[in-house]
Amino acid sequence: MIRNLIRGIITLLLGAVGFYLNYILISLDFLNTLGWNGSLVWTYAIMSVLFGIIGFLVAPVSIRSFIALMRWMDSRLTRVPTNDLMGGAVGGIIGLIIASLFGNSFVSIKFFGPLLAVLLSLFLGYLGLTIGMKRKEDVLGFLNFFPKFRDRGEKAEKSGDKADKGDKNKEGKAGLSRESVSYKILDTSVIIDGRIADIVKTGFLEGVLLIPSFVLEELRHIADSSDLLKRNRGRRGLDILNQISKETVIKVHIHEQDFDDINEVDSKLVRLGQVLNSPLLTNDYNLNKVAELQGVKVLNINELANALKPIVLPGEEMLVQVMKEGKEPGQGVAYLDDGTMIVVDMGRRYMGQNVVVLVTSVLQTAAGRMIFAKPKNSLEKKPMGLRPTDEVNAIG
Question: Which keywords accompany this UniProt record (predicted)?
Fold first, then answer.
């Protein structure tokens, strides 16, 4: 409905443009020079209908282009700090005021006068915008000369001092601005991993855990997967989220902002980190590297685990289910609930069975943790009997 209304408005506007263009051609006696001897009244109708049809045809393309332009501007402007926007706005307004003062002297020039006035407005407006953004401190400092702005600045400083002295948990419940809240953006891998819940309980994380809506959607798709392993991992991730949301140690927010021009979830996470200027909590090795290349801070759970003792120590017993064959002959592969791979030496014979294994070594890298183990019954030592020759030698 709204698109049809906008399409009608564009059609009428271009029809009015045709009417005005016909008026200019008549005033310049252009039609007579072309040999038009008929009534000039019909030319108004012809030009209006012709331009109206053109407007009706190009309206859908214009609407789509305008929406794409607005989305591009929104994605760009959300990255710009507030001080830069304020300084640029003040500088642009000053540039347009100066352009309007000088533009009056060009209007009287025939043909090229209005065009020169428009070009001068664009040039001085852009010049004022760039200077205002680069010299934002001087521009905003100049506003402090006015009592109204000075009083607002003093009140803002006093309220900021009170907020720093107050309880941070109460401030979080009352709702804070984006600059005063420390967000930590969670990705799908760190939620499924599950260790984030234990880290939250320790109280080492501060601020607000931010869960994007597109991450929740990806978790839901994984939980509905036909693959048993993927389905269990997705449901585990949803259980971890419910567990974290019930904790009072840290606040959890669902962020509804999405980026329709981006398809991949990892790229959306990087864009969200740039927009909010907040770090990503992940254990995805590839996302870690991509985010660092684009200037987004990353808190990698696996790197944190490298600085601590591993959860599983060599010599410990574990009950696992061998799921598939390994790369080497005779190897079997099992998984923990968080997706950690366990390579079971001589475990191929136990495929599809639960078996007790002894951990032989743990390999921890930035890409994840890998556990090597052997079946316990294969390590049990058998009693050694005496051979017949040994018995003869013993009797002798």
Answer: Hydrolase, Magnesium, Membrane, Nuclease, Transmembrane, Transmembrane helix
